[in-house]
Amino acid sequence: MKTEASNRGGPISTETRINDRIRVPEVRLVGPNGEQVGIVRIEDALRLAQEADLDLVEVAPQARPPVCKLMDYGKFKYESAQKARESRRNQQQTVIKEQKLRPKIDPHDYETKKGHVTRFLGQGHKVKVTIMFRGREQSRPELGFRLLQRLADDVAELGFIEANPKQDGRNMIMVLAPHKTNKTKPKATA
Predict the structure, then answer these.
(1) Strands across the sheet with 96-101, in order?
(2) Maximum Cα interatomic distance, the chain, rounded to a whole number of Å
(3) Would you call 139 helix, strand, or coil by DSSP?
(4) Contact between 127 and 98 (Cβ < 8 Å)
(5) Distance of CA 76 to CAs 3, 40, 57, 105, 132, Å?
(6) For residue 135, is it left (φ>0), alpha (ψ between -120 and 50) or beta?
(7) pLDDT tens per residue across span 34-78
């Protein structure tokens, strides 16, 4: 049974077929300016492409007969790569900043860390807050939970709890995310 599946051939190629790689007797031809030429034999389509100094590119291989277009394939590949690069540049990158605390944190140190979290949320970044337990502190996870809740309440106007506090070995982790309205504020003022 396994040999039957392996005899069917290799993986299906997703590469666009052009010119001599198109192996069907007839194609539906589209001209260089988008005009419909009609169903023609592959030899005639290749001859028309050669006369126009263009490539015959298969644009819809699933259709019966397949649809082919006369175009400059190099220019087409370059423009599609440019579009893909532009769409990648316009994507928003999610940045997760991390802030580490200890359960027995000094009030001034807490205010400093809270200031960092406030700045990160104001810039539109997510913040992963980690409380690190050492030694006997591990037997009192409620101290860390209370500290995370206090921090979440202090920055509630800038962000919300995206992932509730959970114990992960020696650490307790919570993720804060900015409110949607905050993402537009820094860009407008900058």
Answers:
(1) 96-101, 126-132, 171-178, 159-168
(2) 84
(3) helix
(4) yes
(5) 40, 23, 10, 60, 54
(6) left
(7) 888 889 898 988 998 888 889 888 888 888 888 989 989 888 889
pLDDT of 108 above 90? yes
- Token pair listed for 91: 């994507």
Q: What angle do CA 49, 52, 55 make, to 5 degrees?
A: 40
Model confidence, pTM: 0.51
Task: For helices 107-122 and 141-154, give the axis angle rounded to 10 degrees.
Answer: 50
CA distance 118 to 86: 32
Phi, psi of 30 (to 5 degrees): -115, 130
| Inter-residue contact 99 to 116 (CB < 8 Å) | yes
Q: Phi-psi category of 173—alpha, beta or left, where left has phi over 0 and alpha has psi -120 to 50?
A: beta
The answer to whether the CB of 173 falls within 8 A of the CB of 163 is yes
Contact 99, 117 (CB under 8 A): yes
